[in-house]
């Protein structure tokens, strides 16, 4: 069924996204019931990648459950991890080391980007949010929230363990060095939006200048944080090198986080009361991911620098996991450009990446598309500037820089480890 030549599936998805943007106090209901409406429509009148009815939906769920499982495990686990980190009082030591003016906020954003290059970008965003909460006494400008998300996504764009999409490329045969060129654009983007966002924040709420009294670190909680992150990273790298098929068959990264969390309960008990709120945010994101997965996207436009550039804007509202899977099957991309586009592009809207959704669980005031765009306009401009630098300095050269991955068939979703899995 089409309307003016546009499949009704896409119109329904657009209405869901519009509802999320307009009714930002009811985002969970809009996303969940929108997903249900699309699924019912496709069961009755459409199909799922060629398979009609409930059988098609079942097949889709079997294909997507690893992605959904990893997302759920990471979003819930890292909500408790961020609380452990804040309660360890490590954040209270930051005023001692950071500059006392806007440069302190800028250094914080650079730290988040660096952390995300080797950690999960959800974790980087939530740890950054915890640090900002202390440094700015709970008053964080929405433009700075957008910058935290953008820094976490930019930091992961050039690392095969920093973002779900780059991990997908790694599994498909793209070498780690082939996506590293994304940092040429990501570093410029961070420099641009970082300075503006830090000045925004300093004018809104100055950074804390002194430590709040004598700080006593809780080394037990800090140890829990380190253990959780270390086990997640080790699981991701070890399985990618030794048994990548296991990562596509089971949500191993999400499971690793929860194994670490449960093993450390005797050492420090998590704040379990945080889970209901984190679960609501997780269901919201999973609903949007499922909406995107049900769209009848069979192929992307021909691979080119302009197509990759446009995918950055698309990934702000459309899950970047299926976009990356389609690009890998199609081939012909310079993978560093694609990694930058789909990894960083989702930062432009709060629900455009899993890092943004996770951070807005901590800061509900961020759940307004208009406020995010007004306050975080520098993120979108930074994306364009970063891509321009990629073109000028690196140059689009799919054959020279990347070529086609050695294993272009990507039938299973990639493990959602260091995500941005977007909507």
TrEMBL record:
<feature type="transmembrane region" description="Helical">
    <location>
        <begin position="6"/>
        <end position="23"/>
    </location>
</feature>
<keyword id="KW-0739">Sodium transport</keyword>
<feature type="transmembrane region" description="Helical">
    <location>
        <begin position="302"/>
        <end position="318"/>
    </location>
</feature>
<protein>
    <submittedName>
        <fullName>Citrate transporter</fullName>
    </submittedName>
</protein>
<keyword id="KW-1133">Transmembrane helix</keyword>
<feature type="compositionally biased region" description="Low complexity">
    <location>
        <begin position="405"/>
        <end position="416"/>
    </location>
</feature>
<dbReference type="Pfam" id="PF03600">
    <property type="entry name" value="CitMHS"/>
</dbReference>
<dbReference type="InterPro" id="IPR045016">
    <property type="entry name" value="NhaD-like"/>
</dbReference>
<feature type="transmembrane region" description="Helical">
    <location>
        <begin position="142"/>
        <end position="161"/>
    </location>
</feature>
<keyword id="KW-0050">Antiport</keyword>
<feature type="transmembrane region" description="Helical">
    <location>
        <begin position="30"/>
        <end position="45"/>
    </location>
</feature>
<feature type="domain" description="Citrate transporter-like">
    <location>
        <begin position="39"/>
        <end position="309"/>
    </location>
</feature>
<keyword id="KW-0406">Ion transport</keyword>
<dbReference type="GO" id="GO:0015297">
    <property type="term" value="F:antiporter activity"/>
</dbReference>
<feature type="transmembrane region" description="Helical">
    <location>
        <begin position="106"/>
        <end position="136"/>
    </location>
</feature>
<keyword id="KW-0812">Transmembrane</keyword>
<keyword id="KW-0813">Transport</keyword>
<feature type="transmembrane region" description="Helical">
    <location>
        <begin position="277"/>
        <end position="295"/>
    </location>
</feature>
<feature type="transmembrane region" description="Helical">
    <location>
        <begin position="375"/>
        <end position="396"/>
    </location>
</feature>
<dbReference type="InterPro" id="IPR004680">
    <property type="entry name" value="Cit_transptr-like_dom"/>
</dbReference>
<feature type="transmembrane region" description="Helical">
    <location>
        <begin position="338"/>
        <end position="363"/>
    </location>
</feature>
<keyword id="KW-0915">Sodium</keyword>
<keyword id="KW-0472">Membrane</keyword>
<feature type="transmembrane region" description="Helical">
    <location>
        <begin position="219"/>
        <end position="239"/>
    </location>
</feature>
<feature type="region of interest" description="Disordered">
    <location>
        <begin position="403"/>
        <end position="423"/>
    </location>
</feature>
<feature type="transmembrane region" description="Helical">
    <location>
        <begin position="246"/>
        <end position="265"/>
    </location>
</feature>
<dbReference type="GO" id="GO:0006814">
    <property type="term" value="P:sodium ion transport"/>
</dbReference>
<comment type="similarity">
    <text>Belongs to the NhaD Na(+)/H(+) (TC 2.A.62) antiporter family.</text>
</comment>
<feature type="transmembrane region" description="Helical">
    <location>
        <begin position="182"/>
        <end position="199"/>
    </location>
</feature>
<feature type="transmembrane region" description="Helical">
    <location>
        <begin position="65"/>
        <end position="85"/>
    </location>
</feature>
<dbReference type="GO" id="GO:0016020">
    <property type="term" value="C:membrane"/>
</dbReference>
